[in-house]
Amino acid sequence: MSDNGPFRLSRGGRLIDRAYPLPFRFDGRHLRGLRGDTLASALLASGQLMMGRSFKYHRPRGPLASGAEEPNALLGLGQGGRFEPNQRATTTALVAGMVTTSQNCWPSLNVDVGAVNNWLYRFLPAGFYYKTFIHPRPFWKHVFEPVIRRSAGLGKAPTEADPDSYEQAYAHADLVVVGGGIAGLLAARDAGRQGKTVTVLEQNPHWGGRTPTDHADGQSRIDAALADLRAMPNVTLRRNTMATGLYDHGYLIAREALADHDPNAGLPRQRLWRIRAGHVVVASGALERPLSFAGNDVPGVMLASAVRDFIADYAVAPGRRIVVVTNNDDAYRTALAALDAGLEVPAVIDARANPSGALPQAVRARGIRILSASAIAGVKGGQGVQVVQVCSHVGAGQVSETIEADCVAMSGGWSPVVHLWSHCGGKLNWSDAQAMFLPDTSRPPTGDDGAAMATPVGAAAGDLLVAGATGAEPEQPLLPVWVMPVNATKAMKFKMWLDFQNDVKVSDVELAAQEGYASVEHTKRYTTLGMATDQGKVSNINGLAVLSAALKQPIPQTGTTTFRPPYTPLTLGTIAAEARGDLFQPLRKTPMHGWHQAKGAHWEPVGHWRRPYCYPQAGETHAAAVAREIRAVRGGVGTLDASTLGKIVVKGPDAGRFLDMIYTGMMSTLPVGKCRYGLICNENGFLIDDGVAARLSEDTWLVHTTTGGADRMHAHMEDWLQCEWWDWKVYTANVTEQWAQVAVVGPQARNLLERLGGMDLSPEALPFMGWAEGQIAGIPARIYRISFSGELSFEVAVPAGRGLELWEKLHAAGADLGVTPYGTEAMHVMRAEKGFIMIGDETDGTVIPQDLGLNWAISKKKSDYIGKRAQERSHMTDPLRWKLVGLESLDGRMLPDGVYAVDEGVNPNGQRNLQGRVTSTYISPTLGTPIAMGLVRHGPDRMGEVLEFPVAGAETYKARIVDPVFYDKEGSRANG
Amino acid sequence: MAEALAHIREITDLGMIQIRADLTEAGAAITKAAAIPLPGPTSTTTNGSRRLCWMSPDELLLVLPQAELAAALAELTTALAGQHVLVLDVSDMRAAFAIEGGRADQVLAKLSPTDLAAMPADGMRRSRAAQVACGFWRQEGGFVLIGFRSVADYLRGLLDNAARAGTGLDPR
């Protein structure tokens, strides 16, 4: 082992178990840690101080912190589908066999060609993306961007699917305490004793926060609180659970790590908790701030608290000669911890003039030099600290002394973790005395009752010592230090890091201010201060203090950037949870779904339904299958699974009056036993659905909607009933799924159904647009004689549970008739051959029925219906509106869907004027020619005219305006 | 091998009748015809084989053995004749599952935002299971969950997944 750098101490380490060594790999090297280690402590114990490189300059980086705020020690973790970039070594528990890689370096961590950026930093100042590579224009896309992209960016994205599972769960509690340190545990105990249901969330695997490390009898105080809490059945304690965000109405999201470190346990790796909290106690502690001195990013310069954590928790010494630099008393704890571990502390450098509190006195009593009113002028060293240069804090950095050291423990004071408090609107106050932003309890995040929904306690509320609970001695005030030394030169500021992850220095923020950036939010984006994975947990306050000084304004006037969830990055898997694979989306299946599947149906998604598009036979293309199905229907008989069609029962004394308002046509006059086609518009007059309504009884109608319209039309009806016509006596019920519906279609349809027997389906008993009820093949059924294909057609509705039985009986009985299942595409083509419109093809939310030549379905007798007045507005009655026509291709090519017909001249943008577009287009197997429908400016008046449809990369299409009914114009086939 | 949190079983013999009515006017007739007391808001009543669920201020769901469905439908229709009501057989449009076992509540807690601890023994909740609508009530040893027929496979998949062995929600 070298004489410098980190190593494992022979004694101590409250979280490790020396009986269980764990092998792991780092950049291919085989290393060994102990059970209880984090990756960071295991690497340090192996002498590995350098763990990555920075974002912009590829500077060598060692760990700065010991917890969730870590900006530097980010590793690629795992392999294959389990690879995850940017994992914080300081919070990742070590697991035997772990494979880890350093990031952002090439070809290796030690020799990195990107580090050349390091020598270019004068040329990569704040905002360099915005101003350096603007001209010449094409260079950005072809030269600068590809080069920057290759050298920039943190970890690599995984390239394989994640094999682990994730889940979510809901929870409810009167009180949720976020943070299992002393303040949180005591708040939980108080609430628990009041009988409240309490949940305590702790992001770490162990309880206690800083108390066990920082206070002599801290662990026993924590143990006592835990014992009390565990005895309360109304208190739930959850470790490894990080509260990521607090939202309106006490909605708290938290991530529990379950099997992060045991991928073979078969458990969900992580669980996202979605908690409704009656109240939230924010006991999230505080984060230590770095000091801004030259060379503060050299590996081995760490937060003072992290240095003593590594020593006390993991028995890892970050160095052998540790210089402490501070502006407060707390950092002296690190000096004492280092001394207790047998390490050297050559000096404590304190910016304050007269450090004389109990902790400094204790350090002084151990014979340690305390250099007061002093600062660090510079840290020398490449991949590790070698020399610390000391200067006066009030000077410009003239070196008065050099100290050999391999570790610097720095403390610039503490910042309460106010993220949760702030997520949902809690405000902050700047405390000059404590040099920190504190939750302003007079402006809390509020709940539905206007009262506070969160309460900060302990260090998160600025009470760093929690003396009442820890027994800590009072400490002397800190001296705010934002730049060290006070009058540091420009050259020194070039080496003072604010944001270690993104390489933002004091000089960058000052430059931004000089260039006119006054808003902290703008400065963040311009300099990248506080961006990326750590979101500036250790850099934000220092950054905005420097900005405030540069702007010559007090810190609260500058304010903070916005605190947004998540507190630390969330794995996307937790957000998706079970929604992957078969459970990605609910697939709606009709009662005959399995039959279609067994017959090799090619599926078409229609909303969440899957409908057969066609049933290709062996070696058959989809187009050939569709053509075969159409010929079978027109020449014999086919069956369509129409179960997905919406079915809404409308019943009541006012049902007829209601439907007269819902539909453009008249439904109240429909005789019982009859069906009528109807159009539904919204209040703007636009056509939103169509279908056939059947009158079931004097006061009951069954409304058929489109497949996609079922839920929407039901909601539309309820909206009008509940909000406008609340006194009308009408009940509606969406019974879409109660019925399986089979369209039996073709000249042999009646023949086939008669073979099943049970109902008189003769034209006399069941005429076109009639319906009848009875039993078919012993199955209770309603049969509607309606046609969407132009053929003789019966739609047979049976209880869903018997749909498959009916379907199979039809196919058994009709085998010799060539009965053929057909899919949605055959249905579409056949309706287009007949010139029937399709909602969503001929309509797009801007089309009124009059555009489609459907005036016959609009009642002239009614005083009103939804959309009537809108349809009377001048633009709606404009004779030049685009209207439905048929389009006949002149050269036999099928018109592409959606293409536009051009007109003479250009619009103000220099684009060709337009006069129409194609809405439906197919090759008709029945006619052997292409057919199309479209909307054309007063098209029905222009029969025979030829339109041009230019298409990129092909010869312009030409089509003649014709009648949209291409097949069986007289409509005789529907009579069989 | 740890045990599943609960046993998931599809129930295929439930009849269901949807009733829409002004319950203050028609309540007595419904109670008499269905032979079961009227439930209060968000709760259910049962008479052993039948359960009457409160679905909304003007909607009830009568759940009963499939074999009793036709007769109950006829009795309700007759009893309520002349009143403005809607009585419909909706048995076929539903899928139903029993969630049975010691930690049935944990299975539901993964799928529905309901506060199950606040749901009394006779409670009824209309909620969602992950991405689809559902309703559920307690019955001996767990819950009965109903959803739409078309998503029965999805519901089954959700429930089985949520009940996987070793995935209990108790703190560890």
Automatic annotation (TrEMBL), chain A:
Residues 883-968 form the Aminomethyltransferase C-terminal domain. One of its GO terms (molecular function) is sarcosine oxidase activity. This is Sarcosine oxidase subunit alpha family protein. The keyword Oxidoreductase applies. Residues 174-421 form the FAD/NAD(P)-binding domain. PANTHER family: AMINOMETHYLTRANSFERASE, AMINOMETHYLTRANSFERASE, MITOCHONDRIAL. It comes from Paracoccus litorisediminis. Keywords: Oxidoreductase. Residues 592-862 form the GCVT N-terminal domain. InterPro entries: 2Fe-2S-bd_N (IPR042204), FAD/NAD-bd_sf (IPR036188), FAD/NAD-binding_dom (IPR023753), GcvT/YgfZ/DmdA (IPR028896), GcvT/YgfZ_C (IPR029043), GcvT_C (IPR013977), GCVT_N (IPR006222), Sarcosine_oxidase_asu (IPR006277). Residues 495-578 form the SoxA A3 domain. GO terms for biological process: tetrahydrofolate metabolic process. It comes from the Bacteria. The keyword Transferase does not apply. Belongs to the GcvT family. NCBIfam families: soxA.
From TrEMBL, chain B:
Coiled coil: none annotated. This is Sarcosine oxidase subunit gamma.
